[in-house]
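One chain is below:
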Amino acid sequence: MLPDRHRQSTRTRRTGLAEKVVVLLVFVFATLRFIYPKRTLSCSYRLFIVGGVFQIQDLNMAVEGLEKERDFYFGKLRDVEVLCQEHENEDFPLVKQILDILYATEVSLA
């Protein structure tokens, strides 16, 4: 059977990372204002940091789209596997070839 991985943990880690980055940025701003009270960060640095946060959000959305696509095709492969397993004991060479492809490892394909 093909492995079924738990996907919620990936989303949780990614969301947690974005929140940690925002908290880190707030901490950096607060520390810099404490160390250099008369100086402020220039507008370009602030825009650079905020742009980084938006870029992280964009990447998170792209990853979510790729995860949905991966899950879709994984479901298709799983359906093919179940169908082949139902007819595995019958004498169909095509079913055996399909199962060989599904269960092949990267080493055996080389």
Notes: The first helix runs from residue 8 to 35. The chain has one domain: 8-109.
